[in-house]
Structure formats: C-alpha cells, structure tokens
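To: structure desk
From: M.T.
Subject: fold request, one chain
Message: Could you run this one when you get a chance? Sequence is below, nothing fancy, just the single chain.
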Amino acid sequence: QLVESGGGLVQAGGSLRLSCAASRSTFEHYAIGWFRQAPGKEREGVACISSTDGLTHYTDSVKGRFTISSDNAKSTVYLQMNDLKPEDTAVYYCAAYRSLANWYSFPGDGHIYRGQGTQVTVSS
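Reply: Done. Structure tokens follow.
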C-alpha cells in the first residue's frame, strides 16, 4: 500500500527527492511519515505529514534541509532532501501512522504498515 522511489547515490551537498505512493484510503486516513535506518543503528524518524490538516514535523537533524509535502491528487508524499550529508546515509522507509503524534512518539515502530524502503547513500 506504500511504494517508495527516488533513492540513490549522491555527493555531500547534493539533493534527492523521495516519493511515497499510497493507496487512496491510506492517504486519506493516516499520517504519512518517513523513518530511516543506517547499518548498526536504531531506526530514526525523519519527517511526517498529517493528511487531515497538512501539519508537518521533522527530526532536529534534518530541519532546514528536508521538506515533506503531499500531492492530494496523486496520493503521494514527497521528501525533498537538500544539502545531504554522509550521516544521512540509510535505508529510508515510508510508513503510515494513525496520527502525527504517533509518529512523533514511535517513529520507527509505531506505524501501521510501511513500504519496502529505498537506499540513500551520500558520499563525502
């Protein structure tokens, strides 16, 4: 019900845009967020957007660099990532949450379901 795309290899300072295509029902009823997991590290919430009011939330390490947005007509959520750093390297997952608050509290485990993940690699 969630399909990510847009990952890849980029140099530090570069940009990537991730896309998360959702089913219409998922898009309308759940908050859609991103979390990431780097090798040997715990899952980390990245950003989330509420489907009802468009509110967004970001983890501190990506504020000012990443932007989450949604396209209602396409039932798709985007994560624009600018000024990428090597520490952003991870598998990025798109996931559906019951609420923005749920993502905030449990970004890595509080989702109802998630996509297959897309690799983002930032070289120094």
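Reply (cont.): The first strand starts at residue 2 and ends at 5. Let me know if you need anything else for the meeting.
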